[in-house]
Every structure is written in C-alpha cells, then in structure tokens.
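[Backbone geometry]
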Amino acid sequence: MKKHFNLTDKTAPIMEIKSAKRAVALKYPKGADLPFITAKGKGELAEKMLEIARENKIHIEENAPLVNILSLQEVSDAVPEEAFEALAAIFAFVLESL
C-alpha cells in the first residue's frame, strides 16, 4: 500500500529535489532521527510536485546525483546513508532560511 503525504504541510522543513523530469520530496520533522521521503515522481507527476512546491514556497534543489540515490527508495523511507553528506548541507541552508 502506498502512503500519500500532503506536500503543503509546513509543520516541518520540506524540500523538493529535482533532476530532469524526476522529483523527490523530503521532510525532516523536529525530533526525528533522519529525514524521510514524502513523495517521488517522474514526468508529469514530477512537474506537478514542483509546481506545488513553488506555490507553497518550498525549497527546490536541483541535484541529479542525489535524485538518483533517493529515487531508488520508497515513499516513507528514511534517506539512505549515502545521501547524508549532501543532504546535511541542503537542510542546514533550508533551516537557516526559515
């Protein structure tokens, strides 16, 4: 069963990471050990995700290698260890801008 998450929920930092027609949405709630994947898509779904992110002033990061890693995961999975370093810098930037 696939879980669906509300991309407009601003209760915790969230971001979209895009790469040529693919997007992955992440959320890092306060107190959580790791960020997790809230949505992912390709093609038209990726474009819709990015449109929603823009409308809600959600940070969008273009990073093809990171999208490659994250798109292999399932929605609701914690981000994998190989993505930690890249995500740490992105989340630090996002958290500072809140």
Summary: The two ends are 33 Å apart (CA to CA). Helices lie at 44-55, 64-70, 84-96.
